[in-house]
TrEMBL record:
The name this protein goes by in its record: LytR family transcriptional regulator
Keywords for the protein's UniProt record, in alphabetical order: Membrane, Transferase, Transmembrane, Transmembrane helix
Homology family: Belongs to the LytR/CpsA/Psr (LCP) family.
Transmembrane annotation, as ranges: 24-47
Domain Cell envelope-related transcriptional attenuator: 107-251
InterPro entries: LytR/CpsA/Psr_CW_biosynth, LytR_CpsA_psr
One Pfam family hit: LytR_cpsA_psr
Encoding gene (name): epsIA
GO MF assignments: transferase activity
């Protein structure tokens, strides 16, 4: 019996091995291709949803103020990775979280978020909603509370009024509905806060100095304590600031902005003059700014004024000295020189 030709057998096995390697290689390449296509489709879908949500929210307003006169546009500031100052306005359109688009009520929250990327520093400054002001475009109803600026003249009047009293540039704004914000925080998986006091509200209990993971109704209960806080409105401002700082820290990421569920949840609950590209630039170019967050607030003196339309009202009077301090802190964070604020102490 003839022995098999060993060279032919070896050649046959070698040829079969090469075919199998090519087959496995093609199979792996195919799997990688499908996975890559799937990832691209998911990113594309997420981007489309994010773009649609951002388009719904996008509402440009006039920001023509003395402080903004020689200021670059927001997109140029973000492109250059320069310090930026954003105004956060919070409204309460009810527990159902109605749209902010047609809301003409009062703003419960007014907060500057000043970001310096080179120093990796963020300053969050709250301005009391009950601050006594004379509105630039509505002298006939002045003096009045600052939170009325939005109900009378919208975001533009609020920006004009804040510039009049604090002399700081405002590069962009975000208007949010508090009730919906709590739902958005839930979508984010909640945030961690340390309670500044011990209190019970809406069926929830909080102890001073203890950390809580809050979302939804619990977050609303933490913020909206109306009675029982010895610091009254300043106490509420602090809790609002704590929640917003935690939310900002968690949301300023590329992942969050391209999260379709998160972006869709914003929808009617938020209005802003930041485009989707602006949001992505903030997330990509300003990383690390939330690692060093400091908070501040304007401290006023309680008083009462007589408003010719609404009668007697309780207000907070901010001294020129206090407004100058706030202005200096924000301008220094922005890396621009200080200016003298408008003098009005009564």
């Amino acid at each position: 019996m003839n022995e098999p030709d060993q060279s032919r057998v070896h050649h046959h096995h070698h040829h079969h091995h090469r075919r199998r390697k090519r087959h496995i290689g093609c199979w792996i390449a195919g799997i990688v291709g499908v996975l890559l296509l799937t990832v691209l489709l998911v990113i594309g879908y997420a981007y489309k949803n994010a773009r649609d949500a951002a388009t719904t929210m996008y509402t440009p307003v006039s920001k023509s103020t003395k402080s903004n006169k020689n200021r670059s546009s927001l997109d140029k500031i973000l492109d250059a990775k320069k310090p930026v100052n954003l105004l956060i306005l919070g409204t309460d359109t009810g527990a159902e979280g109605r749209s902010v688009k047609n809301y003409h009520g009062l703003t419960d929250l007014m907060m500057f978020v000043t970001v310096n990327p080179s120093k990796k520093h963020t300053l969050v400054t709250t301005i009391a909603r009950d601050s006594k002001v004379n509105l630039p475009d509505y002298p006939e109803v002045s003096p009045i509370k600052l939170n009325s600026a939005y109900s009378l003249g919208g975001v533009s009047e609020t920006i004009k009024t804040l510039d009049k009293y604090y002399s700081v540039p405002i590069d962009g704004y975000v208007l949010v509905n508090w009730a919906s914000t709590m739902k958005i925080i839930t979508k984010m998986g909640g945030v961690d806060v340390i309670s500044p006091l011990t209190f019970d509200n809406m069926g929830y209990s909080f102890k001073k100095g203890q950390m809580y993971h809050i979302s939804g109704k619990k977050a609303l209960a933490f913020v909206q304590l109306r009675h029982g806080d010895p610091r009254q409105d300043y106490g509420r401002q602090e809790r609002e600031r704590l929640v917003m700082m935690a939310a900002i820290k968690k949301s300023v990421s590329y992942k969050t902005i391209l999260n379709s569920s998160f972006m869709q949840s914003l929808g009617d609950s938020m209005q802003t003059d930041l485009s989707l590209n602006d949001m992505i630039k903030l997330a990509m170019n300003y990383q690390g700014v939330t690692d060093n967050v400091k908070s501040d607030y304007a401290q006023g003196k309680s008083s009462s004024v007589n408003n010719q339309r609404f009668g007697n009202m309780e207000v907070e009077i901010m001294s020129t000295k206090e407004r100058q301090r706030i202005s200096n802190n924000i301008r220094q964070t922005l890396g621009i020189k200080n200016v003298n604020v408008y003098k009005e102490d009564n």
